[in-house]
Design brief:
Length: 285
């Protein structure tokens, strides 16, 4: 069988979560310190480790079949690739920001201004749509420093917590796009490669579905089963197993971690005992 070639960021913000998702999908893949191509031990897949900027082109050219990259990078590069799956990590936004001390009357502020960014295409697109004529100054990193050193009047860059903006005395005034990590693919993969990609997506979805979910087991008097069940929506309905002790049952279900502390008091009040909460690795429907 042919291998599916996947492009992954060598190091940086996407690398760790990309590798974790692949490993939790049961695929034995490691990145060596200098080995930039690596074959999975137990899945027909081969990884190419690259800088994130090069991933859209590598996939569009067919050197890799798929890749994991920020949606921002995919949009900026504008290559012929499709999103096979949104991955939910590396969430951020691309925003326009100006010095904190300046008044902001609206997007027209940017008319005639100089804006520093690493994302000139996305920015130009926004400016055109809003009939703004501004000068774009391309800079490949440390964009937030530009206004402070007199290189530009404003910036267009990645924002997540906003703390880099605050540290550089800037304020976010327009959010242009929201981004997250995406699995991109070359359109028109061979049937054989598409099959491997489908299996990869199936596994990733099983892993992600279980995130933030716990398996809960508890004992309850039989007459309380209905009441306890109403507190545990579960996957379909909770599993109920009779205990050796007459009149008691064990109930099993799935619960969202966020709901857990709220539900636990109600469960105890309803008569549940011996409550066990255990992690779930994968969920397959
Ligand atoms: N602060 C952040 N919070 C969340 N996601 C982020 C943040 N900064 C960047 N990202 C996302 O992670 C991607 C990779 O960011 P990173 O800083 O590793 O890129 P890079 O420095 O261009 O890396 P490379 O060396 O591979 O070119 C970005 O394109 C963006 O999608
Ligand atoms: O809103 P925040 O949470 O502060 O995040 C935004 C910052 O994060 C990224 O930089 P990163 O920390 O990856 O540094 P780098 O660009 O120098 O790699 C991005 O380029 C912004 O500068
Ligand atoms: Mg990069």
């Amino acid at each position: 069988m042919k291998n599916l070639k996947i492009a992954i960021q060598t190091k940086g913000r996407l690398n760790e979560d990309s590798m974790k998702l692949i490993q939790e999908s049961g695929i034995d893949l490691t990145i060596g310190r200098r080995k930039l191509v690596s074959e999975a031990g137990n899945f027909p897949m081969e990884a190419l480790f690259l800088r994130d900027d090069d991933i859209p082109q590598t996939v569009a050219d067919g050197v890799a079949d798929v890749g994991i990259v920020g949606e921002n990078e995919m949009l900026e590069k504008g290559k012929d690739v499709v999103i096979a799956k949104r991955l939910g990590f590396s969430k951020c936004r691309l925003s326009l920001a100006i010095p904190k001390s300046m008044d902001y009357p609206g997007p027209q502020f940017f008319n005639g201004k100089k804006i520093a960014t690493s994302y000139p295409k996305i920015l130009q697109n926004y400016l055109d749509k809003n009939n703004i004529s501004a000068e774009i100054h391309v800079i490949s990193g440390s964009v937030e420093i530009a206004p402070g050193i007199g290189l530009a009047d404003a910036i267009f860059d990645i924002v997540s917590s906003g703390s880099t903006l605050v540290s550089n005395r800037l304020k976010e005034v327009e959010v242009v796009i929201y981004s997250e990590a995406v699995l991109i693919a070359k359109p028109g993969l061979s049937a054989e490669k598409q099959e491997i990609l489908d299996e990869l997506i199936f596994r990733m979805e099983s892993v992600q579905r279980s995130e933030g979910k716990k398996y809960i087991l508890l004992n309850t008097p039989n007459e309380k089963i209905q009441e306890v069940a109403s507190l545990l929506p579960g996957m379909k309905s909770p599993t109920v197993v009779p205990l050796a002790e007459e009149g008691w049952s064990s109930m099993h279900s799935v619960i969202a971690e966020d709901d857990f502390w709220e539900v636990i008091g109600k469960l105890k009040k309803a008569g549940a005992e011996g409550i066990l909460v255990i992690p779930i690795e994968k969920m397959i429907f």
